[in-house]
Amino acid sequence: MEDLTQVYNELIMEHSMNSYNKKKLENADYSEKGHNPNCGDEITLEIKLNGDIIEDMAFTGHGCAISLSSTSIMIDTLKGKTIKEAKEIIKTFIEMIKREQTDENELKKLEEAIAFKNISNMPARVKCALLAWHTIENMLEKN
Predict the structure, then answer these.
(1) 42, 73, 102, 127: least CB-packed within 10 angstroms?
(2) pLDDT tens for residues 80-90?
(3) Residue 24 belongs to what domain range?
(4) For residues 36 and 80, what is the distance between their CA atoms, to the nearest angstrom?
């Protein structure tokens, strides 16, 4: 059986190098900038809603492999969800990174985003993994 950490690492690298979510979104309803002053990562998230459903999301900007892949995987995870579902997933992801949430059943709703579970062991990378998640959290709180 292949080591899960290896699978997660491959997933993270794939999303950081070939993100199909990295593009300008036509007719976005909301846009929010996220910036990590520690390392210079900077993204702009765009979201298109259909009622309370996240119909589409995309991002532009630059950053390290962790922040770009976390952003891309977050988009895959939240697309098609209601705002309420998205807020729950965002909260669970942030709690997982902060080691406040360890319940496997709760973590399942993160889908591929569970790949970042071990980032909590690398304190310097935590902000990179959380950049997009805090950015979307701010965007959803405002609207």
Answers:
(1) 102
(2) 999 999 999 99
(3) 4-142
(4) 27
Go through the chain and tell me how many residues it has.
Answer: 143
- Tokens 């591929």 belong to 112
Number of folded domains in the chain? 1
Q: What is the CATH number of the domain that holds 43?
A: 3.90.1010.10
Tell me the C-alpha to C-alpha distance, in Å, between residue 72 and each of 8, 42, 68, 104. Answer: 14, 14, 6, 23
Instruction: For residue 54, give the nearest of 94, 85, 31 by alpha carbon.
Output: 85
Provide CB contacts within 8 A for 15, sequence distance 6+.
68, 69, 72, 73
Alpha-carbon distance of 34 to 20, in angstroms, equals: 19
Prediction pTM value: 0.91
H or E element at residue 32: strand 30-36
Is residue 15 within 8 Å of 59, Cβ to Cβ? no
SS3 content of the chain, % helix, strand, coil (to 5): 55, 20, 25
